[in-house]
Amino acid sequence: MKESVKILLSAGQIQQRVTELAEEIMRDYNGKIITMVCVLKGGIIFLADLARKIRGPVEFEFMDVSSYGDEAVGGKIALNKDIEGGLEGKDVLLVEDIIDTGNTVSFICKHLLAKNPASFRVCALLDKPERRLAAGLTVDYTGFVIPDRFVVGYGLDYAQRYRNLEYIGVLSFEE
Ligand code: IMP
Ligand code: MG
After folding, report:
1. Nearest to 157 by CA among 38, 40, 29
2. How far apart are CA 57 and CA 25, in angstroms?
3. Does 91 qualify as catalytic in the annotation?
4. Is the pLDDT of residue 74 over 70?
5. CATH architecture of 12-147
6. At residue 175, does pLDDT exceed 90?
7. pTM here?
8. What are residue 174's phi and psi, to 5 degrees?
9. Mutate-to-test residue for ligand 1 from 5, 95, 125, 156, highest number of ligand atoms within 8 A of CB
10. Which range is least confidently modeled, 19-23, 66-70, 148-152?
């Protein structure tokens, strides 16, 4: 089967939106140190661009999770790598590539909130609200709301590929 990628969000559109998100974040944090927690691997491109648009102090933390099992019942999420520092008293911004069912972000929020940050917000580049299963999820900053399609690029992969595309596209398969 031949894979093809049809552009959904251009590099220019993404960069413009990332700049807007950074402006919003800077206004809200108002010079406080932002502890940006990146979810590997999909979040790294977004984190790298977003952080460079923020004028002011930021710190980076990285964590990795994987999901398996029946997503309808919350899935099973495994923590592959925890962050290295503590979050006590820190102003934490979770940086995610995409929120789909919301199960992953729900798990990560619970995990990080247990570390007693002073404040906690979520920033997701993409949101597919049609697929939401997790209840009571708050997303403070959203880049783009997209339809229920499988997308790749700008950090997002299919079988570990396409993460390096500058744009985001819908992946399809042809015979
Ligand atoms: P959730 O737990 O269903 O919200 O799934 C979130 C995770 O699934 C994301 O962090 C991605 O790793 C992956 N994912 C969901 N939708 C897509 C997609 O369209 N393309 C690539 N990865 C996706
Ligand atoms: Mg992910």
Report:
1. 40
2. 12
3. no
4. no
5. 3-Layer(aba) Sandwich (3.40)
6. no
7. 0.95
8. -120, 150
9. 156
10. 66-70
Q: Which atom of ligand 1 is nearest to the CA of 42?
A: 12
Query: How many A from CA of 118 to the centre of ligand 2?
Result: 25
Cis peptide before 110 (omega within 30 of 0): no
Q: How many residues in the chain?
A: 175
- Beta strands (DSSP E) in 74-157 are 76-81, 91-99, 119-127, 141-145, 151-152
Cα separation, 58 vs 52, in Å, equals 10
Tokens read off for 55? 């004028």
50 CB-contact burial (10 Å; exposed 0-12 / middle 13-18 / buried 19+): buried
CA dist 110 and 144 (Å) reads: 24
The conformational region for residue 72 under phi > 0 = left, psi -120 to 50 = alpha, else beta, is alpha
Contact indicator for 51, 58 with CB cutoff of 8 Å? yes
